Amino acid sequence: MTTGEKIRFIRTFRGMTQKALGEALELKGDCQARIAQYEMGFRTPKRDVLEKMAQVLDVCIYALDTAPEGFFTQLIELLFWADTEDPHLMSLSTAYPDGKPYNSIQEFKIEYSDNDSWLLHDPTMLWFQNTFMDDYLKEWEVRKRELREKTITLEEYTEWKLQWPYSCDGCGKCKAPKQWRAKLKDTKKESS
């Protein structure tokens, strides 16, 4: 997704008009037209405008920035936006050790249970030997499972991704810096 598409998605998710966002950013001139230009890709907001926009929209700057800090942050954000565009594009699953040392296995393979939801061909798996990526992917797997099992809503799932990495709680091991579930519920109560 382009920066403009991200702005439009988040603004709409927050229920804001282009004019309201432009006014909140204190843009000069026709603020609605400026937001429309950002969203259509005719203009690109400068870094300071993006930072203020992230505050106004109450999202992590990484959700808006096309070049977030660090390779792994960029990769996670790219995967999040791909998931937003096509929720069925990716599946996440945690692999569990079989007790055999890795080096003793001549042909390493992961087996899966076939069911009707698989593609016509066997999927190719990818994993990272990086603690940062592994921890966030494990938590993302939990959130996708919660969404599938309907223990969280699509809005809560989207909120979790928009607040990432501040919404992460280590798969329930710690308190997340940004309380995305309570925040979403409180926001809905206020608007009732």
Keywords:
0% strand; mainly alpha
Write structural notes for this entry:
With 192 residues, the protein is an all-alpha fold. The protein contains nine helices and no strands.
Using only CA atoms, what is the Rg? 19 Å
Q: What is the number of strand segments? A: 0
Largest sheet: none
The helix content is 40-55%
Q: Can you give me a brief rundown of this structure?
A:
This protein is mainly alpha-helical. It is 51% helix and 0% strand. The protein contains 9 helices and no strands.
Task: Summarize the SSE layout with pairings.
Layout lengths: L2 H11 L4 H7 L6 H10 L6 H11 L3 H4 L6 H15 L45 H18 L5 H10 L16 H12 L1
